[in-house]
Amino acid sequence: MPICERDPWRDQYFENIPCPEDVLIPTDDTDAWSWYPAYNWIYDKLKIAASQGFACGPHGTTPPSYPIFSKPIVNLKGMGTGSCTIRSAQEMESRYTPGHFWLPLLKGTHISSDCALENGEIKWTRHATGISIGDGMFAHWILEAEPNPPLETYLTHWVHANMAGYTGMMNFETIGGKIIEVHLRFADQWCDLNGPGWIEAVIRLYAKGVWQLQNEHRHTGYSLPLFAHPQHGFRHPPPKQQALIRAMPHVSSLQITFHESKKLDEHPMPPGGFRLGLVNAWNLEAGRAAVDQLAKCFPDANLIRP
Q1: Higher per-residue confidence, 6 vs 285
Q2: Number of alpha helices (DSSP H) and beta strands (DSSP E) in the chain
Q3: For 82, which DSSP code?
Q4: Which residue among 10, 172, 176, 269 is least enclosed by CB atoms within 10 Å?
């Protein structure tokens, strides 16, 4: 197993791929924090905001205007847990939360960008655009085949200023072209949609310090989640039903994204709902059809459908 994966539903992407035993490739922020102490400051979201010149500060300091956005300064297992919009000084006082900070309420497209870096230089980038349904949830993500030159220029300038000497993968989350979060890893939710040879290129980057992805052919892909209102008793669909969904046309993979043996609050989830599964597909309508079949596997769930 070349990738250090904490979520067993994503082992499917990395099984049976050769990798040197001494190469450690993080997909989880807690691992990345420990393995890259010289760069783990990037998990301080207040520092990320300040590095871009935003007006920002910890709770207890006074924003110059409202509305603002509030979130934890550091949250390695959160998916937006505790974040909210604050629209007045009175609301700011009532929502005071130790360990949280405020920054401008950004508007625009939410994009997740994976980047491969060699010695502080970006060598490869791929963007996924999120279609939001609110409360931290997304109807789907579009893994774009085309580049995004303005965003790539912005990320390149930020990397040059802040990541000298770093070699490895990074993930940036941006809204309206501004960085809201940075991770010392790639997004493992849709890594299969990056195409043949991509995982091997990641291994080579960590093992040899060079990025080489030969004969890359990009195709637009889609990652579609299924959310439900939290309730006890969620069970994984039978393997036969999962296999039928995976075999549907244009479906790349299926993930059942929860542990049956864990309590609901032990799963890091967005504020709005509990994610039951994910379908990655090469066609949006095919992905929706697969999610419809997945939904039938949870007949007693109070589902959240876009």
Answers
A1: 285
A2: 7, 13
A3: T
A4: 176
User: Of 207, 166, 295, which Cα lies nearest the Cα of 21?
Assistant: 207
Q: Return d(Cα 145, Cα 152) in angstroms, integer.
A: 14
**CB-neighbour burial class of residue 260 (10 A; exposed 0-12, middle 13-18, buried 19+):** exposed
d(CA 105, CA 70): 9
Locate 17 and state its tokens.
């791929």
Mean pLDDT estimate for the chain: 95
In the numeric block, the tokens 């979130």 are attached to: 71
**Dist. CA 174–CA 182, nearest whole Å:** 9
Angstrom distances, CA of residue 215 to CA of 164, 198, 210: 29, 10, 16
C-alpha distances (whole Å) from 258 to each of 107, 185, 235 are 31, 21, 9
| Structure tokens belonging to residue 85 | 């919009």
Is the overall model pTM greater than 0.85, yes or no? yes
